[in-house]
Amino acid sequence: MFAMWTQFGILLLACVYLGVVGAPFNGVGDLGTDLELNAGFFEGDMDIKYTPDGKLQPTQRWPLATVYYKIEKKKFTAHQEKFIQLGMWNIEMVSCITFEPAPKEIRDYLLITDSKTGCSSTVGYSKDNTTIKLVPNSIGKGCFNLGTIQHELLHTLGFFHQHNYADRDDYVKIVKDNISTGKLVNFQKYAADSLGNFGASYDYESIMHYPSNAFSKNGGETIIARQPDGQSKMGQRDGLSSADVTRLNNMYNCPMLQPERN
Ligand SMILES: [Zn+2]
């Protein structure tokens, strides 16, 4: 929670810095999770092949913790481009990650482009293709919720959804009877050596957690927290949680900011 309040302060400062404050931004707004879940990719918004093997491999992290990026021209307004950069800035403020506009000689960069269907991202660094796709919604809505942009950026940096972690059954119950036909695949659990917790235990408040009614066919909960205070925390898109910050800094071996590993 502390991290989110810190980020709220950062957001206010950054809005002034970037001139976004003039845009019709609603800080709460639409969480964007519907557009994450319905983007048409694996688990909704993860543009990857089915099996996420090897995500602990350092080769799938961005070299030198630097993400070179290009925002495709004419796909977004100037305000939207600044808002995407604001999401990057929020991550830079709590980690050693840097996002740099890709110079001409850099070929392995993150392409940020538009989508008609939803918000999505490839997962981790790759020499071939790393892409984030966002519906060019107005600021504070859909894919242009600040938390949703950070959610997609964390996928780009190599993170999966929280409820897929190996120990998730200790923290949540998946309610199969409420899940839409054909969507159960989005709730699979990965081996511990496939994802790794990077020094933070299961976190209901993670920005990478599904909302509790994700892929519900009847409006009922599809994920039920085993700890009473967990239910209302799932699906938040306000900002990175403390656990998200810990994992990010541990994954990228950030100096100074790196908390102890388990
Ligand atoms: Zn996602």
From TrEMBL:
Q: What class of enzyme is it?
A: hydrolase
**Short name of any one Pfam family annotated for the protein:** Astacin
Task: Provide the Peptidase M12A domain boundaries.
Answer: 49-255
Organism expressing this protein natively: Drosophila virilis
List the SUPFAM superfamilies: Metalloproteases ('zincins'), catalytic domain
Among SMART domains, the record links this protein to: ZnMc
What is the designated name of this protein?
Metalloendopeptidase
Record: active site: 152
Q: Which residues form the signal peptide?
A: 1-22
InterPro entries for the chain: Astacin-like_dom, MetalloPept_cat_dom_sf, Peptidase_M12A, Peptidase_Metallo
Report the cofactors: Zn(2+)
Which gene carries the instructions for this protein? Dvir\GJ23066
Any single biological process term in GO: proteolysis
| Cofactor binding mode and count | Binds 1 zinc ion per subunit.
The EC number(s) given in the record are 3.4.24.-
